[in-house]
Amino acid sequence: MSVKPKIASYRDLLVWQKGMDLVVRSYELSKRFPPSETYGLAAQIQRSAVSVPANIAEGHGRRHLGDYLHHLSVANGSLKELETHFLIAKRLGLLKDEDVESVLALSEEIGRMLAGLARALRHKST
Questions:
Q1: CATH code of the domain occupying 11-125
Q2: How sure is the predictor about 126, in pLDDT bands with cuts at 50, 70 and 90?
Q3: Please, are residues 72 and 112 in contact by the beta-carbon 8 Å criterion?
Q4: DSSP class of residue 6?
């Protein structure tokens, strides 16, 4: 029987850690954009990427389950927004297919983890 590690901080959550990886990758890719996109699509990608782990952390810091679940929902919304920005960048020829596919795979994994965390939190409260 395996023992689950205690979650003492949002930094212990694997979903937050993967969200941080997504931020780094998003910044790396958006830096490839032309200067004309600095305040456009690049900024949108960076903002939505940062929102994912930030909302996970903020939700973890809230006292009420409903607040936590709300912030996980916002993180998931930001994740979908980020996916859309990357698909736009691909359509515009700003990024290669393989770069976008790798980011989408990480995003989908984080989405599944967010759903699992929300499900576990709801189950724990009943």
A1: 1.20.1440.60
A2: confident
A3: no
A4: P
In this predicted structure, what is the pLDDT of residue 4? 60
Three-state secondary structure of 43-102: HHHHHHHHHHHHHHHHHHCCCCHHHHHHHHHHHHHHHHHHHHHHHHHHHCCCCCHHHHHH
Q: Is 103 helix (H, G, I), strand (E, B) or coil?
A: helix
Its sign, for the CA torsion 4, 7, 10, 11, is negative
Would you list the domain boundaries of the chain?
Answer: 11-125
The CA distance from 54 to 58, in Å, is 6
- The answer to whether the beta carbons of residues 49 and 26 sit under 8 Å apart is yes
The whole-angstrom separation of Cα 41 and Cα 63 is: 35
Is this prediction's pTM over 0.85? Answer: yes
**Can you read off the two tokens belonging to residue 75?**
């993180």
**Closest by Cα among 104, 90, 20 to 57:** 20
Mean pLDDT for 3-11 is: 78
Token reading at 77: 């919304």
Q: Is the separation of the CB atoms in 114 and 76 below 8 Å?
A: yes
